[in-house]
Amino acid sequence: MMRSQTGFSIHSRVSVMMDPTLAEMGNHLSDAMKILESGKLESEQGKERRKLSWKDIPGPLQGDGQDVVSILQLVQNLMHGDDDQQGQRMQYVGEQGHMALLGHSLAAYISVLERERLRKLTTRILSDTTLWLCRLFRYENGSAYYHEDDREGLVKVCRLVINTHYEDYATEGFTMLSSKHPVIYQSAACRPGLGQHLCSQLALPLSCLCIVPCNTMFGSLHQMDVALLDKLIRDDRESGKVPLLLIANAGTPGAGHTDKLSRLKELCVQYNMWLHVEGVNLATLALGQVSSAVTAATKCDSMTLTPGPWLGLPAVPAVTLYRHEDPALSLAAGLTSSQPVEKLRALPLWLSLQYLGHDGILQRIKHASQLSQQLLEHLKTLASIKTSVEDELNSPVVVFRFSQDSAPSSGGSVEGYFAGERDVLDVLNRWLGEQLAQQVPLSGVDVVELEDEGTCVRFSPLMTAAALGTQENDVAALVEKLGEMIPVLSCTLRYRQDFKDEVLQQASLSYIEDLSWPGLGGVRYEPRATDLDEDKRQHSVEKINNDLLKKLMELDTDLYFSGGPEFCEEKNCIFIGMATEDLDVAELVETIVSIGREIEESGKLFENMTEVVRRGIQEAELQLQKANEEKLMEEGVLRQIPLVGPVLNWFSPVQASVKGRTFNLAEGCLDSTEPVYSVKAQMNKEASLDSPKSITKRFPGQKLFRRHGAGSDSVSDTSSVSQLEESFRETAHVQANNADEAEVPEERHVHIVEETALSDQRVPEGQETESVDTLR
């Protein structure tokens, strides 16, 4: 059963593994994990009670205790909360994950064994795991330190190096460092905060940390500048400092680039320094074909491995492999321990490695590398995508970015608008990464900020594929979504300047410059009233723009309207999202202005409604009273006598025309209806003569703000985009003029018709003239 090369099998001679209690423990743990993952432990009545209970408030410890099922139910509730949908449950960790979790339970059980038996068992577990890892990753004659925090191994290594360079450090402490300050060199491309963490854990001042810049003239922009490092080391030695340790990368956290490890090793040997290497590319050491740049890591003094994410193993420790001949110094530095319980940290990894086997481990690492190569081959076919890959044949990390340099220029030049504006491209690439991660979650892509390239999208399957279960079809789906988003990015980048120019031409709109918004940009409608104080004006701006945003969101369009980013400094704004090829920017801006003006006028109408109506009623009463007096003077006193008036009207009817009145709510006055009827008659006459030519014609299924036939050779009613935009402007202008010429539009006035004469019919006796009661 034992495999001669790696020994990946459970050793049958370990007597404690034959204990039937272990099998029972494994079954209980497996059942508990299935219950927690499925979320089916709790009944419907229990769910209702939980919704009504104060589950987030700590309660007292029960005196009689609880059973296992109740405790698991509590854990399940805390894990899942109120999420009842299956898609929001924790991801399935797989059998190898259960094996790693079983290791933690076994460690607790093994720790209660008799001391001598515990020592033998932990020694065997530790030696087996160390041997397997050293052979897997080609690190000969190495020792291993297992730790939960992936930075802890480097801290222990630094203590080992300090004890090596300062012989009396164990007794004298920091006084030994005061005369000759140690220096730790770190690449500028290392993960943020690593050097500061070292200094804080080792009680060293930050002056002991030296950040080495990356190449600026030759080679990769993410590789350490070896020539500059050599100069820095010589300068420190001349000033009496002690070059202590160099931290290099075999796969930078951002772009996955590898430093020139062979050259760095030569410098470390020359100046008696310790070389420590970390990075995701170290996983490829297990493969049959490895690049020479990564192979050089096998000659370093120490390296940190993270097999958990590489192999999809939850809760397994990180491992620091190192070479040192003095076990006493290793013990003093904390790299080894005489406590058997601390050696049990390797137990979850020991179980998982045996479960996967040598072939299973290689298959997972190889699969992740193949996914990277598959994505890289597809990205090469996309003209507007720029990749940042160190080794196209072996790199397990792919970093790409939407670039304006080669973006399609249909309808306009991208570079002419936004050449050099990196912030705009950064926010668009951030949007791209977030959309890809949301729409293809199994791809595991994320957004990364690089110093030189800016915001990029990173695909690192070695860190995500094993846990997410990423397959080739997920990469194909990622490429498909990317192909759909590139035209949207190009059009948005091109139309941003057009949108800004159109907004600046409108007196009632203010353009909002916010480079953190991935879209066309932002606007704010400014009311035309200038007689308001600052507080009332701010309230008016807020109300108008909030109502305008609601109106725009109700329109039948593919555009996305929002109140802006969460931490936007500008308030009361409307931000427009990503654009498409057929977007009519002029129509969009004109619509915003039109709706905003309509909301503003409606607001004025309702604000002044009470006072206007009161004044209007008073004026109406006066005019009706005056009309009655004129009627009395015109008809004479005899026509008002009850018995004489009807007889006189019978023999000599009064011929009088009907005089109409309109109540203008905006101005609060009564007007004659004659201009309204004359304007209507004229408009109807013109409409019957020829049909309007200035109205933007929409085709069936065509949404707002879209140009018909954009990007194709189809013929539309307008010969070009400019003619369509000019047609819309003429339409808006004619409609505005008609609204001004019509003194009393129908929808804004209340008609009050005053009857001042009688028809040929006889008026009943006792008929009185119209009073104010006819006013509604």
UniProtKB/TrEMBL annotation:
Recorded coiled-coil stretches:
610-637
Residue spans of biased composition, Basic and acidic residues class: 745-754
One biological process term from GO is: carboxylic acid metabolic process
Give GO terms: molecular function aspect only: carboxy-lyase activity; pyridoxal phosphate binding
Keyword Oxidoreductase belongs to the record: no
Pfam (any one): PDXDC1-like_cen2
InterPro entries named in the record = GrpII_AminoAcid_Decarb (IPR050477), PDXDC1-like_2nd (IPR055103), PDXDC1-like_3rd (IPR055102), PyrdxlP-dep_de-COase (IPR002129), PyrdxlP-dep_Trfase (IPR015424), PyrdxlP-dep_Trfase_major (IPR015421)
Instruction: Report domain PDXDC1-like third positions.
Output: 499-604
Q: Does the keyword Amino-acid biosynthesis apply?
A: no
- What are the protein's UniProt keywords? Coiled coil, Decarboxylase, Lyase, Pyridoxal phosphate
Required cofactor(s): pyridoxal 5'-phosphate
Tell me the segments the record calls region Disordered: 734-776
Record's compositionally biased regions (Acidic residues): 767-776
Annotated PDXDC1/PDXD2 second domain ranges read: 420-493
Q: Which family does it belong to?
A: Belongs to the group II decarboxylase family.
Q: What is this protein called?
A: Pyridoxal-dependent decarboxylase domain-containing protein 1
